[in-house]
Design goal:
alpha/beta, 4-stranded antiparallel β-sheet, 11 helices
């Protein structure tokens, strides 16, 4: 079965920034924030780098697991990778869909974003979460307000894709109503909500209500990192399969995109497990798996 990893991170250089300050690689796959906090960013299994995770490393991992293509997401713990992603647009057009990103508070944000799309980007990704994204660096803001909406309109004019990581429902960044407004006011974008809104055990009723609100023709959800978010160290993740059944009942299999969120998510389990756990449950039929693994991501990011 063909697969597209709809949520993968590369880092030519680890140079992140969030509420803990800057992040830098310190060797052994580990990284440190400016406040001194250290964590394991890349798995220590020989398939990832000690100081970075490059396209060539990712392609080797993808080929080993029969993953045809990947969407390259931006992430605050890795740092903006726009320049590297632009190189990969030219070097591997049949394997990667790189995303671009920008801090909306930058003076020349609109012109810079316009330039990215003029030079060939098809998708933008913003990690806006209060935990590790823009709302950890800035005061909370309305995703459908004057900070973000002008940037969303740029992507809308280019008929591109916007991916948003809004964190979980404990965060100011978790704004289902604003996501609905973005989709309604920008009908020419494809909006992807990352991590299925980061489900929290004991709060599935809130998840259900949000998914019903966002069951729109131009909204999709990637399910990247659900094993790490919902049920760490629980392969083959029966609790995740129950969440996916709920999502499928509301959205349909056509609106869900498989992804891993490697390399960080792969510090809890192997890329192979993050890639094959869907085959170990009963959330999807074989036809639905083709959509979740491949067809939906191809339509959203590559067509």
């Amino acid at each position: 079965m063909k697969k597209i990893d709809a949520h993968l991170h590369l880092a030519q250089v680890v140079a992140g920034y969030c509420r803990r300050g800057e992040s830098r690689a310190i060797g052994g796959g580990r990284a440190a924030w400016g406040n001194g906090e250290e964590w394991q960013l890349f798995p220590q299994n020989g398939e990832y780098g000690e100081y970075n995770f490059t396209a060539e490393m990712a392609l080797a991992l993808m080929d080993k697991n029969d993953v045809e293509r990947a969407v390259l997401m931006q992430g605050s713990m890795y740092g903006f990778q726009n320049r590297y992603h632009e190189e990969l647009l030219r070097r591997y057009p049949d394997r990667f869909c790189p995303t671009c990103t920008i801090d909306p508070y930058m003076t020349n944000a609109l012109d810079t974003l316009e330039g990215f799309f003029d030079r060939g980007f098809r998708a933008a990704k913003w990690e806006v979460s209060s935990g590790g994204g823009l709302m950890g660096c800035h005061e909370p803001f309305d995703l459908a307000g004057p900070v973000m909406m002008p940037l969303i309109r740029v992507v809308n004019r280019h008929h591109g894709t916007v991916a948003l990581d809004v964190g979980d429902l404990t965060m100011h960044s978790h704004q289902p109503l604003s996501l609905a407004r973005i989709a309604d006011e920008n009908p020419d974008i494809k909006l992807v909500v990352c991590h299925l809104l980061a489900p929290m055990e004991g709060h599935y009723k809130e998840l259900e209500l949000s998914l019903r609100l966002l069951a729109k023709e131009n909204i999709w959800f990637d399910i990247a990192a659900l094993p790490k978010i919902v049920e760490p160290n629980g392969y083959p993740y029966p609790k995740v399969h129950e969440v996916l059944k709920l999502a499928k009942d509301i959205l349909g299999a056509d609106r869900l995109l498989w992804g891993t969120d490697a390399p960080f998510a792969a510090t809890s389990d192997t890329y192979t497990h993050l890639h094959d756990y869907l085959l170990q449950g009963d959330a999807f039929t074989e036809d639905e798996l083709r959509k979740v693994y491949y067809d939906n991501a191809k339509h959203v990011y590559f067509d």
